[in-house]
Amino acid sequence: MGASETMRAVRITAHGGPEVLELTEVAVPAPQAGEVLVQVSAVALNNTDLWTREGAYGRPGDPKALSGWRGPVDFPRVQGADVAGRVVAVGADVGESLVGRRVVVDPAIYDREGPDANPVGLMGSERDGGYAEYVTAPAERVHDVTESPLTDDQLATLPTAYGTALGMIERGRLRPGETVLVSGASGGVGVALMQLARARGARVLAISSGSKIDSVREAGAHEVVDRARDVRDQLRAAAPEGIDVALDVVAGDLVSAGLPLLREGGRWVVAGALGGYEVTFDVRRLYLHNAQVIGSSMHTPTHFGLLMDLARQGEIQPVIAATFPLDQAAQAQEQLANRGHVGKIVMHPF
Known about the structure:
There is one protein chain. The chain is of the alpha/beta class. Helix 3 (158-171) packs across helix 4 and helix 3 packs across helix 9. The protein has helices spanning 47-54, 152-156, 158-171, 188-199, 213-219, 231-238, 253-258, 283-287, 301-313, 329-338; strands at residues 6-12, 21-27, 35-44, 77-78, 82-90, 102-105, 108-110, 119-122, 134-138, 142-144, 179-182, 203-208, 223-226, 243-248, 262-270, 292-295, 320-325, 344-348. The protein starts with 5 loop residues before the first strand and ends with a strand. The protein contains ten helices and 18 strands. Helix 4 (188-199) links the parallel strand 11 and strand 12 (203-208). The longest helix has 14 residues, at 158-171. It folds into two domains: 6-161 and 299-348, Alpha-Beta Complex (Quinone Oxidoreductase, Chain A, domain 1), CATH 3.90.180.10; 173-295, NAD(P)-binding Rossmann-like Domain (Rossmann fold), CATH 3.40.50.
């Protein structure tokens, strides 16, 4: 691959609406020592893409500040955390064995070495991502899934949504036979939570609304609660014994309404704030019942390894809602923002 070669990429140069996404020609990145170069077959969209573009994350002490996931974004930035593709070149200190293999990239940038590291950065946010024809990644973050029965589109949906979901399930210590509540069930993380919780042998109660309820049931929920009616009453009826684990990407008022429904020793795991980031609840319901509220951001290397095992075995069936070419990144993000779909939106750079 000649040094002069260029590729198409979609970058943001400032925070803003879909109009800040620009399709441009840039040099194909060269893999540094310890890195590989991946030709992107499919890149999945996430809410993270919208919030990074908008600068919607706030900062400690200043919740309204324009900020990326973990602080200021270094512009220009190629977005896109979720990449499936093929390794086409390797940098120094990397064996050739990965070349030609079909891979999924773990998009997390971790705080330390080791299997239980915490993610403190993200591809597409703290380093360039997959809204492009090629992307570099550390070799140790590239997982060979050549043998997986899943399509490239399905594989691309896994890193952020299923990685986040498996992180929540692991941190919430979900066990077979437990009753689990999934909020935001029609979204990418919601569908992943339902499928992974079912695969673990849990009973899944999901919260959704309107036209999506049937699709959510098809995607894996045992029972669906309608968000448009009194959620607490419906949950009491659906789970009279209480809920063992809540897997919540909505937060807001749901936390105060739902916490009293936890069983003794129940766990409420929060990995998003679609319903609002300011939460009030009766703290007596927490300590008197030995309950836990657990924050969960993405996954550890161990969690991601478990996810890749499931992918290779075809134990999960990601749902693709729509596909777009790279030059329609703005339309793809707008469809994501409208939340009218069930499953994941994927772009094809080639």
